[in-house]
Amino acid sequence: MLFNSIDFLIFFPIVLLVYFVCPRKIRYIWLLVSSYFFYMCWNPWFIFLLVGVTIVSWLCGLGIEWMHGNRHKAKWLVAVSCAVLLGTLGYFKYTNFLIGTLNRLLEYVHINPISRHDVILPIGISFYTFQALGYLIDVYRKNVKAEKNVLKYALFVAFFPQLLSGPIGRAKSLLGQMEEEPQRHAWNYERIISGLILMLWGYFLKIVIADRAAVLVNQVFGSYEHYQMTALIAGAIAYAIQIYCDFMGYSTIALGAAKVIGFELINNFDTPYFAHSVADFWRRWHISLSTWFRDYLYIPLGGNRKGKWKQYRNILITFAASGLWHGANWTFVIWGLLHGFYQIIEKELSPIVERINVKFHTKTESFGYHFLKVVFTFILVDFAWIFFRADSISQAVGYISRMICYRDWWSLFDQSIYTLGLDVQEFHILFLAVLLLVCVDALRYSHKETLDVFLQKQCLVFRWGVLLVLLFSCLIFGCYGPGFESAQFVYLQF
How many CB atoms are located within 10 Å of the residue 43 CB? Predict the structure, then answer.
C-alpha cells in the first residue's frame, strides 16, 4: 500500500475514525495493528521479519539497561545486537551485491562464478533497522530508558507513516510522545487541518512534479547514447527535481499523516537546493539520515576531534557508508564519496576563498554572492546525482562523457526539449509546478515556516484559494490514468 494509491485513501480515514472513537488507553494498540496491516499489504510474509527485528531489539534494549552496572557486558551486548540487525539488513540487501563483486574478481583468475541467491529486498528494511539500531545505542548511552511495553516499542518501530521511507525517528522523541498527556492525541481541528495541508502539499510534489519529471528522466537516462549535451543536462536537472519532490513528497505526507493523529515527526527537508555549500546541503537534505550518521558513526569515529586528516578520513567513511545504505551498487558508493570529497575540498579552500574575498572587498552578504554560491552548490550536487541515478558506473561515465564532448548549443533555441518524453503542454505544467515549488521553498527559506504554518496565518480567502489550487492541480494534472504509470516512491527501493 503506497501513499499515492486508492487503497491508502480508504485506509487512512478508517484508521482515523477508529482512532478517535476508541478509548485513549488502547489507541496505540490500534495504531500498531493498523501499521502491521499497512506493511502486510505489500508482502504478508515479511511481517515476521519486522516483528523479529522488533522483538530482538526490544529484548536487547532491556538487557543493555539491566547491564548498565557492568559497562563491559553492556558494550558486548549492544555490539552483538547491532551485529545481528546489521547482518539481517546485509543479507537481504547486499548478498547479491557481494556475490556480483566477488564474481568479477573470480573472472581474473578463471574461477567459476558463484550463483546468485533469489533474495527479495523487504520494503522499508533500511529505515526500521536503523531506527532500532539508534534506539539500542541510545539506551546504551543512557539517552533514553529502555521501553518496558513491547507493544509501544513495536509501534515505535512500525509506525505506518514513517515505516517504509522514514523519516528515521528517535526513541527520545517518538516514544516520549506516546507517554505525553492525552490532549496531544485528542481531536484538534487546527492540528488536523495543518496535517491535511501538509499531506496535500506532499501529494502535489509527488504526482504533479516528481512523476511528471520522471517521464523526462527515464527517457534521457534510458537512451542517453542518442542525446547530446543540452538534453543530458536537462535530464540531470530533471532528476534533481524528481528525487527531491519524490522523497520530500513522501516525507511531507508522512509528516502530515502523523500530525493528524497527534505525533510530530522530524522534518526531513529544509530547502536543500538553497544550500550555499555541500556541507550546508547535508544539513538540509534527508536530515533524519544525515543526523543519524553524524551521531552514530561520524562522532564515534572521532569526528573532528583528532586532527584534520583523521577528520577527513571520518568524513569519507561516513559518506561511503551513507552511499552504501542507499543501495547495493558501486554507483551509490561513488555518489557518497563525491559528497565526502566535496566537503573536504570546501574545508581546504575555505581559507583561500576568505583571503580572496578580503583582498577584492567582496560583498559576501549580498544577494548576488549568495545566489552564485547556491548555483555552484546545485551544480556539484546535480553532478553527483548522475551516479545516483545511473544503473552502473559505466553508464554514469558514458552519460557525463557525452554531456561534455557532444555540445549542441543551438538546441537551446529550438524545440527539441519537447522531444524528451513530455509534450509542450506537459512540459509547461511541469515548469509552472516547479516555479510554485521554488516560491514555497523561498518563502520557507526566508520565514523559517512550513507551508501549513504559513497558510494558517493567512486570511480565509487566500488560504482556501491556495488549497483549492493544490487540490485541483492534483486532480487534473496529477500523473495517473492513461499515459502514466502509478509510480512508487523512489526511496522505497532503499
Answer: 12
Mean pLDDT by 10 residues, the chain (494 residues): 84 92 88 94 90 94 88 88 93 84 77 76 90 94 92 94 88 82 67 92 94 92 89 94 94 93 91 95 94 94 87 94 91 95 94 89 88 95 96 94 84 76 89 94 89 87 91 85 57 64
Query: Can you tell me the distance from the alpha carbon of 124 to that of 128, in angstroms, rounded to the nearest whole number?
Result: 6
- For position 121, what pLDDT does the model report? 83
Dihedrals phi, psi of 318, to nearest 5 degrees: -65, -45
pLDDT confidence of residue 492? 65
pLDDT at 260: 92
pLDDT confidence of residue 95 = 85
Cell of 452: 501549513
Q: How far apart (Å, rounded) are the C-alpha atoms in residues 113 and 111?
A: 6
Q: How far is CA 163 from CA 39, 156, 159, 321, 469, in A?
A: 8, 9, 6, 21, 30
R_g over Cα of the chain = 24
Listed residue (93, 167, 171, 80) closest to 125, CA to CA: 93
Q: What are the residues whose beta carbons fall under 8 Å from the beta carbon of 11, sequence distance 6 or more?
A: 1, 34, 37, 38
User: How far is 67 from 131, CA to CA, in rounded Å?
Assistant: 22
Interior CA angle at 69 toward 66 and 74, to 5°?
Answer: 65
Burial of 304 (0-12, 13-18, 19+ CB in 10 A): middle
224: left (phi over 0), alpha (psi -120 to 50) or beta: alpha
Is 92 within 8 Å of 122 (Cβ atoms)? yes
Query: Maximum distance among all alpha carbons in the chain?
Result: 73
Enzyme catalytic residues: 326
Per-residue model confidence (pLDDT) at position 483: 47
| Cell numbers representing residue 36 in the block | 502491521
Of 169, 171, 179, the residue nearest 58 (C-alpha): 171
